[in-house]
Amino acid sequence: MGAEAPCTLHFDGQVAEGKALFETSEILFRPRVRGGLRLAVPLRAIRTASAEAGVLRLGWGTESAEFHLGAAAAKWLEKLQNPRGRLDKLGVKAGQRVALVGKLEDSFAAELAARGARVGAATAREPADIVFLAAERPEALGKLAGLARQIRKDGAIWVIRPKGAGSAVGESDIFDAAKAAGLVDVKVVAFSETHSGAKLVVPVSKR
């Protein structure tokens, strides 16, 4: 899940109330009323962008739209003009020990290595700063309790799951499993176009 904000959309002579979402590859508008106006603007297609008085104006191809977002308009323009990389959103820094559990993107390990992270297994004796757990099925969440003992007290576990209503692993599944493992959820981001990431950490009171 990316950033989201209440929005009034002006597009193609229509005005609609709903919610706008800033996702990894597009800006979406979802109407408040079932069957109402929907819009998806691919980020790579945007040619012009400006923000003034709480209104984000976007132009792509031959189309244009106004997203009335209030204070979020300037923040979203900043994100468009200065996009953060995936590893920045995930909090990965050079020198950190990172462990990968399960099947993730083939290129992800190389991406981590290029950042300067040390990719390898995590153990209770050699805990990781960050663990990435692939959770295509609910059964994978059963590993959280063990992994919680293999991260530093101020470390994190990112649970990476498929996006969409058809996903076998929902956010509520992750939050319930995290609670059972003595962890708390603090952040959700878009890991890729197809997967979402939920960040779990040890509660401050238990560090």
Describe the structure.
The structure is a single chain. This protein is an alpha+beta fold and 207 residues long. It folds into two domains: 3-83, PH-domain like (Roll); 87-206, Rossmann fold, CATH 3.40.50. Helices cover 18% and strands 42% of the residues. The protein is built from five helices and 13 strands. The protein has helices at residues 72-81, 86-90, 108-115, 144-148, 171-180; strands at 3-11, 14-22, 26-31, 39-42, 46-52, 55-60, 63-68, 97-101, 118-119, 128-134, 151-162, 184-190, 195-201. The strands form two sheets. A seven-stranded antiparallel β-sheet has the order 4-3-2-1-7-6-5, covered by helices on one side. It has a six-stranded mixed β-sheet with strand order 9-8-10-11-13-12, sandwiched between helices. The longest helix has 10 residues, at 72-81. The two termini are 28 Å apart. The mean pLDDT is 94.
Question: Oligomeric status of the shown chains?
Answer: single chain
| CATH hierarchy: architecture of the largest domain | 3-Layer(aba) Sandwich
Number of strands: 13
Secondary-structure-based class equals: alpha+beta
Number of helices: 5
Strand share of the residues? 35-45%
Mean pLDDT: 94
Pattern of helices and strands: EEEEEEEHHEHEEHEHEE
Classify the fold: give the CATH topology of the largest domain.
Rossmann fold
**Overall number of domains:** 2
Name of the CATH class of the largest domain: Alpha Beta
Q: Largest sheet, if any?
A: 7 strands, antiparallel
Uncertain segments are none
Shape: elongated
Helix fraction by DSSP (H/I, runs of at least 4):
10-25%
User: How many whole angstroms does the radius of gyration measure?
Assistant: 19 Å
User: Could you give the distance between the termini?
Assistant: 28 Å
Strand order of the largest sheet: 4-3-2-1-7-6-5
- Say which CATH homologous superfamily of the largest domain is assigned: Vaccinia Virus protein VP39
